[in-house]
Structures are given as structure tokens and as C-alpha cells.
Amino acid sequence: MNIVNGVPTIDVDEALAAGAGAGDGESFMLDVREHQEWMAGHVAHAVHVPMGEVVERVGELPRDRRIVCICRSGNRSGRVAAWLVQQGYDAVNLAGGALQWASLGHPLVNHVGNSGVVA
Predict the structure, then answer these.
(1) Is 110 within a domain?
(2) Choosing from 15, 71, 94, 98, which is the catalytic residue?
């Protein structure tokens, strides 16, 4: 884990090692992109809470697992991760976001479970 602009940040390999996106890992993947982005493609087993809804839905997030925040490139998710850390959550940003995840050959699924794309 690194600190980038004051935000705890991990890379894709670290996220995978912690089970992010596996659904049963020690990490919880939170996708903060907009609805249409999520529908086009997301990491399997990630949970979707758009950035604009995080504050009102924060009670839905686990306090007993690390939260790996993901967006398209890492900018929005970095802001969400920073806010979650301020609220006492163990949260990190995924460096490079879904673009980096996909560029390394890791799969995305669309809203019906087929192969997805980064939108």
C-alpha cells in the first residue's frame, strides 16, 4: 500500500491478493461510478454505490473489512476512499481504477453477467 495525495492506495495485484472482487475475500470492492458506467462493465462481486450516494448510504458499507474503492481511473474513488478514512473506515483507492484492472487482463462483467467494458 502507498499513500498518494494523502489517500491510502493499492494496485491491482494487491487488491487481488486481498480477495477484492472475489465476493468472499477479506476486502470489499466498492464501485463508485455512475449507473451507466456500472451497467457497461464492473468487477464481479463489486458493490455499486455511486459517488453521489456514498454519504447517504455509508451505513451499508462494512466496518469489519477493508473497502477497496474503484472508479474509471482512480480519481473519484480516491475522493471516496479519503472520505471513508475520515469516517473511520479501513478504505483504500485502487490505483488506475477499472481502466488499469481491465488493461491487466482482469475480467469485467456487464449488468447481465456477460463480458463487460470500461465505459
Answers:
(1) no
(2) 71
d(CA 36, CA 25): 26
SS (H, E, C) 56-76: HHHHHCCCCCEEEEECCCCHH
Q: Which domain range does residue 13 map to? A: 2-103
Question: Is residue 118 domain-resident?
Answer: no
What would the mean pLDDT of 94-112 be, rounded to a whole number?
A: 96
As given in the structure block, the three cell numbers for residue 14 are 494487491
Residue 69 a catalytic site member: no
pTM of the full structure: 0.94
| 92 belongs to a structural domain | yes
pLDDT tops 70 at residue 23: no
Which CATH number fits the domain that encloses residue 14? Answer: 3.40.250.10
Instruction: Give the pLDDT confidence of 48-74 residue by residue, as tens digits.
Output: 999 999 999 999 999 999 999 999 999
